[in-house]
Design goal:
- It is a single chain.
- By secondary structure, the protein is mainly β.
- It contains no helices and ten strands.
- The protein is globular, with a radius of gyration of 13 Å.
């Protein structure tokens, strides 16, 4: 059974940075397209970024130039580097194997002064 475990969330001031990590079990991690989503209170879960097995990446417009998704297949881990954070980035961030029902438990990111 595949499991995803996120870490790295926390409280940060506007303009600050955080790096989220998502560790996956499973020997075929390198073939999966991985995604980060986020969900703010009272709002729908939105796609933030994806990274394919060929390392092609995509981002939602509001995070382009500030967030970077990357992966280390040797560690079965996907990362989300978040720079110049804004209050509107506050949400629970979830890791997902793209187009599957496999999700992590989520990690809270709060951007506030």
């Amino acid at each position: 059974q595949v499991q995803l475990v996120e870490s790295g969330g926390g409280l940060v001031q506007p303009g600050g940075s955080l790096r989220l990590s998502c560790a996956a079990s499973g020997s075929i991690f390198k073939f999966w397209t991985m995604a980060w989503y986020r969900q703010a209170p009272g709002k729908q879960r939105d796609l933030v970024a994806t990274i394919a097995d060929g390392l092609h990446t995509n981002y939602r417009d509001s995070v382009k130039g500030r967030f970077t998704i990357s992966r280390d297949n040797a560690k079965n881990t996907v990362y989300l580097q978040m720079n110049n954070l804004k209050p509107e980035d506050t949400a629970v961030y979830y890791c997902n194997i793209r187009e599957t029902a496999v999700w992590g438990q989520g990690t809270q990111v709060t951007v506030s002064s």
